[in-house]
Design a protein that fits this description.
mainly alpha; 195 residues; two-stranded parallel sheet; globular; two-stranded parallel ribbon
């Protein structure tokens, strides 16, 4: 491949489900349980809040994972029948590109959005969506899983990457943009008005 391959945009949808308050309360409860902040609440109440917050984190990552899997499949399909087609370029190729070495423009945009650890966020989203197609009921997840979901997600991502051999991609040879869904809808609307 000599020129830059243009990939479909990565469109990220907002997290819904009323979980932002639970996320914040869960984080505060976790800090209190670790003795890092003061709290007058009973340990059992803090523990339940922490687990509720962790459940919301899992839901958020699952929905992000859906967006990432959709994008990875679009990328595979966009290369089919082109000179860049290679059966060794799989969804895992695009997962590694996104997690390990995205184009500089994507990295900068994510940093502008406040994403400080894209590797952890994207790899865990892929891992969680590899485990669950839809959010499981909270009572179906064990407290051990919820307390340590990030470790399970990290290992699930590694498992996903090892499901099949894949060709690693050079970020300098692939270009794509990342958009919030609302931002992308506005962009399309503006383009339609111009034409």
């Amino acid at each position: 491949m000599t020129q830059i391959a243009e990939l479909p945009p990565l469109i990220l949808h907002p997290f819904s489900g009323g979980g932002t308050d639970a996320l914040l309360e869960g984080s505060r409860a976790s800090l209190a349980l670790q003795g890092l902040v003061e709290s007058g609440e009973e340990e059992s109440v803090l523990y339940r809040r922490m687990l509720t917050g962790r459940y919301q984190e899992v839901r958020m990552l699952l929905f992000l994972g859906k967006d990432l899997f959709r994008w990875m499949q679009q990328c595979v399909e966009s290369l089919e029948g082109t000179p860049d087609a290679d059966p060794a370029i799989t969804r895992q190729s695009f997962a590694a590109l996104l997690v390990e070495d995205p184009p500089e423009s994507v990295r900068l945009k994510l940093e502008g959005w406040g994403v400080t650890d894209r590797r952890a966020v994207f790899s865990r989203a892929i891992g969680i969506h590899g485990l669950f197609e839809n959010p499981p009921p909270p009572e179906s997840l064990s407290p051990i899983f919820l307390r340590n979901y990030h470790r399970f997600a990290d290992h699930a991502y590694i498992c996903f990457q090892h499901l099949q051999a894949f060709q690693p991609l050079d970020a300098k040879k692939f270009r794509f943009d990342v958009y919030a869904s609302e931002e992308y809808a506005r962009l399309l609307s503006d383009q339609w008005e111009i034409s």
